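Pasting two entries for a bug report.
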Amino acid sequence: MNVLTRNYFRILREGAFGERQPIEPMSSFKWHQLRERAHEDNVESYLPGSEEPHKGLRGLSEYKKGRRHKNIEKAEYHAIDTSIHSLDFLELIASNVHQTIAGRTRIDGIIEIGHFLRTKGDKVDFIKIEQWLHKLGIYNIAQLHASILVELFGFTPDEVPFIHRTSHKAVRLATDTHKLTLAFLPYYPAATLHSMFYRLHKSITQIEE
């Protein structure tokens, strides 16, 4: 990572989770670029001295639950040990996965996953979460998102118990293009191809419009 990217995630780690991080010197031009990126990622409110109010997770509501997701919810509502917090967490993860497949990994969404884990994680049934992620076919991308929390935001593996290993490729997903690209194809073939076809279909639709 270059100095701008290192500082960017250190500042977000401090602003979002209150963990003070060392900041490296940068030129005024790079600081301007950092602020521009924060604006693009909807995380301006986490910058030091910012008076920008937190705007919520704009755009994550684009996620529409499919049949499998709805079936999971229906079964859970009728379960003896119903866990509403687990369903809420599943929807948050699925919304973020949808954004990545659509072509952009949402840093504000990843931070929101981290907030949920640290404030409500003790109320989540992670055995169910892991099973549901596999049923929805989104476990691998959810693992990448959780790895971003570990690799860039200082979370410990114990804080993200629904995955069994972290991936250094998460750093590339978060810091380079924000997209699942051909570089991820050998490791996450289904997700990568789904992402590519989704963006192709979206582009064609926009041209037709």
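Entry 2 (this is the one that rendered wrong in the viewer):
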Amino acid sequence: MLLSRPAAHTATVGDDTVTSTRRERFREWRRRRPFVGGLLTALGGVEMFFSGQLDVGRIHVQLGIEGLQATIIPVLLVLLGVLAIAMPAHRIFYGVIALAVAVYSLIGVNLGGFFIGMLLSSIGGVLTVAWMPRESARAAHDGPPTHPGPLPEKDA
């Protein structure tokens, strides 16, 4: 059929033929970026957005200048989470901004989405900043030391 795709992808590397499934390709793609941190940041933003639209009994969240914050902050958190996943080279910038916005949401958005959205976004921001690519971590352990060691003492 025209719309069906094969589940496995075959590539030739030298004399070997490598077959990988979609799941394996997704796993490799996911490992090259701060996926969990970006996902938690985005989920925290989604939770904050829907917590601002709630009616709890007789309590109704008013829209106005506060409603603008209740819309912009969650959208910004979702955007930062997606950008952290899409562009892992800028993960530290996106993670720090997401952490600052998540802490500010405690004041700006219904106690940070009743604390749940703030906690999700804060943990996501911290995980985004703390994430390191595998190649850099492996090179740091396998490569030569960056400092020459202790300096010899001079006799005076």
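Dev reply: Rendering is fixed now. As a check, the viewer should reflect this: The chain is about 60% helix and 10% strand.
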